[in-house]
Amino acid sequence: ADITPASLVPHITADSRVYDGTTGATIATRSLTGILLTDVVSLTGGTATFADKHAGMGKTVTAGAFGLAGLDAGNYILDPTTATTAADISQRPITVAANPQTKVYGDPDPALTYQVTSGSLVLGDAFAGALTRTAGETVPISPYAISQGTLTAGSDYALTFMGASLTITKAPLTVTAANNSKVYGDPVPAPLTGMIVGIKFTDNISATYTAYVSAGGMVVTPTTPVSGSPYPIIPSVTAVPSNVLANYAVTPLYGMLTVLEAPPSFSNLVIPNVIYGQASSTVSGTLSYVPVGGPLYPTGAVSIVVNGQTRTATIQPNGSFTATFSTSGFPVNGTGHVVTLSYDGSDPNFTPASGTGAMIVVYNTAVGHQFLQPINIPPQQRSAFKIGSTIPVKFQLFLADGVTQVANAVALIQVNKLSSGVSDPVNEDIYSTVPDKGINFRYTGGQYIFNLGTKNVQVTTGTYRVTANLNDGSTIIQDVEMRAN
Questions:
Q1: In a 3-state reduction of DSSP, which class is residue 282?
Q2: What is the pTM (predicted TM-score) of this model?
Q3: Can you tell me the distance from the alpha carbon of 368 to that of 447, in angstroms, rounded to the nearest whole number?
Q4: 356 with 339: CB under 8 angstroms?
Q5: What is the DSSP letter of 266?
Q6: What is the pLDDT of residues 168-211, one digit of tens each?
Q7: What is the DSSP string of 184-215?
C-alpha cells in the first residue's frame, strides 16, 4: 500500500522598505503549518514581490519558489506553494532647494530653477510642475519669495522644499539733456529738450531741463555772460506716481548751453550836413543789440573815420556815443564823405560791429543861394527873354560865415520847358565845369556868371525853368518867360 506525502501550508512575513522603483520584497520570516508530531521540517528559499512598485501602506506581498528542508522533509509537500503577507513601501525622501534669482526691473522673470540637495530620483522618474514666486514687480517690495508651486516628484516621494527669493534690482534710466545755444541778451530757449532712455512698461516718466550757471547754482538768464559759457543743462526727472522712480537708477547726462556773443548794430546815426568852411561837426549815434526784452549796450568805444580823421567815442551806458571832427578843410561833396564806424568787440558779450554813413559838405544856403538880376526873384515880376537870346545866369555862394565867398564851385546849368507846371526834357545848353575866365562860365566880381544860350530852344513861347545844380547837391531854380520878340 502507498503512504502519500502530507500537505504543509507555507507562511511568511516581509520587511517594509522605501520606494525604489521595483516590486522586490525581502522575506523576513518563514514558517509552516501542518507538521505532524515531532517531524523535523522547515521552509526554505523563496522569492517575494509586492503587488506593484508604488508607495503604500499594507501592500500585499506574495512569495513562491520555496523549498523544504529537514529529516522529514520527504514526507511533505507544500499546498499551496505560495504564501502572502502585507508590508509597507514608504515614500522616498527627497529635498529640493530653489535657486536664488535676480532680475532687473521691467525685464522678464528668469527661469525659476532648483536643485536636489538630498535624496535622489529613481532612474526613470522625473519632476513635474514648476516653481512660482510671490506676485509683484517693484524694487522697494523686493525680494519676492520663490515657493514650491506645482513642483512634484509624484506620490512615491516625500518631497521637502527649501524656498529662496527673487530680487528685483533697479533698471538703468539715462536722461540726456540736448545741447543748445542762445545769443547774449536773448531768452533761454524754451523748452530745453532732451531724451530719456530706459523707461519700462508704460511708466509715466518725464523730464525737464534747466540751464544753470553752475550745477546747483543760479539759473541762466538772458544776460548771463558769455565768459562762463557753455553752461550745464541739468535734467530733472519726475514720475506719476512719484514712487515709480524707486524702480530706477537714474543717470543724468548734462547738456551744454552755449551763450554766443550778441551782434550789436549802429542806429540813430546823426551826421548833420556841414556848411562849407564850418569849423567842426559832431557825429553821434547808438550802438546796441535789441533782443525781445529790450536793448543791451556794449562797453568800450567806437572808432569813427571821416576824410582821414579818426575819432574814438566812448560808448555811454545808454549806448550813445559822440565824436567831433574838424571840418573847416573838408571839400564840398554832394554825395558825402564816407563815415566809417567800427566797434572792436572789446566787451566779451558782443561781437565787433561796423557801419557807414555820409558827411555831406554844402554851401551856405542861408545867404546868396539864388539867381541875381537880370533873373527876377518873386515877388518881382517874372523875367522875360527873347528866344534865341542869351540869358545871363548869375549867383553867389558863401562859406559858413555867410561873408566869405566861394570861388571854385562846379555847376550843372540847364533850361527846360514847363508844361502844366511839369518840366519837359532838357532842351537847352548844359554846362558843368569849374568857372574860368572864358565867356561861358566864369567867376568875376564875386559872382558866378553863365551865359545861357537859347538857340536850341524850340520856337515855343511860355514858361521855362532855369536850374543850377551845384556840386554840393543843392539846386537854384527860377522860372522865366520866353517870348518870340
A1: strand
A2: 0.73
A3: 10
A4: yes
A5: E
A6: 999 999 999 999 999 999 999 999 999 999 999 999 999 999 99
A7: TTSPPPSS--EEEE---TT-EEEEEEEEBSST
